[in-house]
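Need a sequence for this fold. Nothing fancy.
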């Protein structure tokens, strides 16, 4: 089979073909670029596999590096060589091209480090994760552009099937990350018109081999999960991970949301399904607002109810409650990030903040919206208020469409009130007009709890609307409150510097 016109128009392919012929090696473009050509998707990452005559390298010769270095000289491009992996990479007109020699791999069951040997193209294709990623286009003069597809990848692509070239047990045992990759590809490639499914034998193998996930580094797992979270419909990925038992191997806290407990005939909301609906809503609202997908906002959606299992209570006459689950969840976020080797910097703090605050705007929907409540929310959320509002809007889910519509209408009133208060007070970037240093200077204090107490009094007075948001009003209020607890200024004329 020959590819249709356009797939190999980029001049880099002709250059590779010519250079390979000069070196006496055979070259093929393989993997994702080939797959995405048939799907009509853009792909700027090109993988070239290089086969030595007879399928084995000459001693000391790494064919991928050999071809890359020859290409580098011809195009005057800088070549990055990774000798331990036998690979090399160069950029050609903004396109990344990676070269590797054809190889075969074998694995020890308790290790992810393969034993690598030179091999043929077909042996290289056999070691690939899925048939749709094992297809190759020949770049050789005698059959330039021919599709090399020994495992029916083109057929599986047309049918929307994720299938392994070898028996799934062997493919997944060699590298258990491929189980997550199967789910990621099924999720990423699926469209409404052309859904992708994982073949039943692969699903069965995943269920049987889920505990093999334990040999993987957390960094590799999170890299795959992050890619899933940025797909158009990430809920599909988490449903598949839960179905196959993979999810509980690295994020059991999320798996515990699944299921409904019943007492006296009363059950609570199925929180796992709800969480995935919130995640889907966030993706939808981002798209509607013309925003780029935000990975950390997606993590906040995924973890927003993570504290519910620990806070779940059945109260006679009232039913199920999850009081304080936002506080419990916020405490869990750093532990989850640390366990998964995720960043513990401002990204974690952002997720933790949104988990902690995600009920606050909803509470304003139910209660009378006061300026004071709005000010406090704006103050606590700061620059993340827009993301918090998007998350809270996404959190409005129900099987009753009329209820969802009513809550969303009320939520719009809250947003309008917030815009009004912020325009008047500029509270989003609010800073206490009174600093600890100023209090120490005015009253001649050493560092002590009283300073924090006075600062909190001033902050609350501003946020509650008792005094204007000016230094003068704050200073007068500070001195009055200090006098009530027996403090007098050492210099009554002292003002902020």
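Here you go.
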């Amino acid at each position: 089979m020959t590819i249709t016109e356009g797939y190999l128009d980029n001049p880099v392919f002709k250059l590779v073909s010519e250079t390979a012929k000069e070196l006496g090696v055979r070259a093929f473009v393989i993997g994702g670029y080939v797959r995405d050509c048939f799907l009509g998707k853009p792909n700027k990452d090109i993988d070239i596999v290089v086969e030595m005559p007879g399928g084995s390298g000459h001693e000391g010769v790494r064919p991928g590096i050999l071809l890359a270095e020859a290409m580098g000289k011809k195009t005057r491009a800088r070549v990055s060589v990774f000798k331990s992996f036998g690979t090399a990479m160069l950029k050609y007109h903004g396109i990344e091209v990676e070269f590797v020699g054809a190889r075969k791999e074998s694995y020890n069951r308790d290790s992810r480090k393969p034993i690598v040997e030179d091999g043929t193209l077909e042996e290289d294709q056999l070691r690939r994760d899925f048939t749709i990623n094992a297809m190759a286009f020949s770049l050789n003069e005698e059959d330039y552009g021919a599709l090399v597809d020994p495992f029916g990848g083109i057929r599986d692509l047309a049918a929307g099937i994720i299938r392994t070239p070898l028996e799934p047990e062997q493919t997944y045992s060699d590298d258990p990350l491929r189980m997550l990759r199967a789910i990621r590809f099924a999720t990423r490639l699926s469209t409404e018109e052309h859904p992708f499914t994982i073949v039943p034998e692969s699903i069965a193998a995943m269920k049987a081999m889920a505990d093999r996930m334990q040999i993987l580094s957390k960094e590799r797992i999170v890299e795959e999960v992050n890619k899933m979270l940025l797909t158009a419909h990430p809920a599909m990925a988490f449903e598949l991970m839960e179905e196959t038992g993979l999810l509980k191997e690295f994020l059991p806290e999320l798996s515990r949301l699944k299921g409904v407990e019943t007492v006296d005939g009363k059950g609570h909301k199925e929180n796992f399904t709800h969480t995935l609906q919130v995640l889907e809503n966030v993706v939808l609202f981002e798209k509607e607002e013309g925003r780029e997908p935000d990975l950390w906002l997606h993590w906040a959606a995924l973890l927003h109810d993570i504290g519910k299992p620990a806070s779940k209570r059945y109260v006679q006459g009232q039913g199920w409650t999850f009081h304080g689950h936002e506080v419990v969840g916020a405490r869990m976020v750093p532990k989850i990030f640390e366990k998964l080797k995720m960043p513990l910097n401002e990204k974690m703090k952002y997720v933790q903040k949104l988990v902690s605050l995600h009920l606050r705007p909803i509470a304003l929907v139910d209660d009378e919206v006061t300026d004071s409540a709005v000010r406090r929310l704006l103050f606590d959320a700061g620059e993340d208020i827009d993301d918090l509002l998007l998350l809270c809007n996404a959190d409005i889910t129900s099987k009753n469409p009329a209820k969802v519509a009513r809550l969303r209408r009320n939520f719009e009133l809250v947003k309008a009130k917030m815009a009004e208060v912020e325009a008047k007070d500029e509270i989003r970037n609010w800073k206490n007009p009174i600093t600890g240093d100023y209090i120490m200077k005015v009253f001649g204090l050493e560092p002590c709890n009283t300073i924090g107490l006075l600062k909190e009094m001033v902050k609350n007075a501003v946020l509650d609307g008792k005094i204007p948001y000016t230094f003068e009003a704050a200073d007068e209020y500070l001195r009055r409150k200090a006098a009530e607890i027996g403090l007098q200024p050492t210099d009554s004329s002292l003002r902020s510097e």
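For context: Residues 28 and 410 are 59 Å apart (CA to CA).
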